[in-house]
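Below is a filled-in request sheet from our internal design queue. Each sheet records the structural input a requester submitted and the sequence that came back. We keep these sheets so that new team members can see what a complete request looks like end to end.

REQUESTER: design group, bay 2
PRIORITY: normal
MODE: inverse folding
CHAIN LENGTH: 174
BACKBONE (tokenized):
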């Protein structure tokens, strides 16, 4: 071989070796980047799975809390249902024991008896006031005995005060 060919062959070998080195370095870089991507992928998957697990556990905790809250509401609704049933049975028992209240005619009789009893009480409590006046005040107060007594008491106080003032004025100016 001549020196020129040897030189060429060396250059060519050097170039080949450089090309190989470059290819090897590129291959290494690609392998490293792939490994790095795989690690990143694994890290992301691990993070995602941890996040998913945390979310799952939070969801489970929230569901358990909701179940705990729902139980008292269910207990309360059961209690309300029992109270309704008890009230209904008591109402039914009451109507069975007092069938005379069930008709409107009997109800009117009951109200009439109540009015008569209230009027008798008012007559005894306020003997100076006429029966008609007592009846008017009683009906003005919609049949409320306490309100009627309050109103009549105030009128009585006013009347006695007025009577006292008249007597004093007659005595003084007389």
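RETURNED SEQUENCE:
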């Amino acid at each position: 071989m001549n020196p020129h060919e040897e030189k060429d062959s060396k250059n060519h070998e050097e170039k080949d070796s450089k090309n190989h080195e470059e290819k090897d370095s590129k291959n290494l870089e690609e392998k490293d980047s792939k490994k790095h991507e795989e690690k990143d992928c694994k890290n992301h998957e691990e993070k995602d799975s941890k996040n998913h697990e945390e979310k799952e556990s939070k969801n489970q905790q929230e569901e358990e809390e909701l179940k705990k809250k729902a139980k008292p509401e269910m207990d309360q609704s059961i209690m309300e249902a029992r109270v309704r049933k008890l009230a209904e049975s008591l109402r039914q028992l009451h109507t069975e024991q007092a069938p005379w209240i069930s008709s409107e005619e009997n109800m009117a009789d009951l109200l009439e008896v109540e009015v008569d009893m209230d009027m008798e009480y008012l007559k005894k409590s306020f003997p100076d006031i006429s029966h008609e006046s007592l009846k008017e005040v009683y009906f003005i107060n919609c049949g409320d005995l306490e309100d009627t007594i309050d109103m009549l008491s105030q009128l009585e106080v006013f009347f006695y005060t007025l009577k006292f003032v008249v007597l004093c004025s007659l005595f003084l100016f007389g």
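SHEET NOTES:
- The mean pLDDT is 76.
- Helices lie at 3-97, 104-125, 131-140, 145-173.
FILED BY: M.R.
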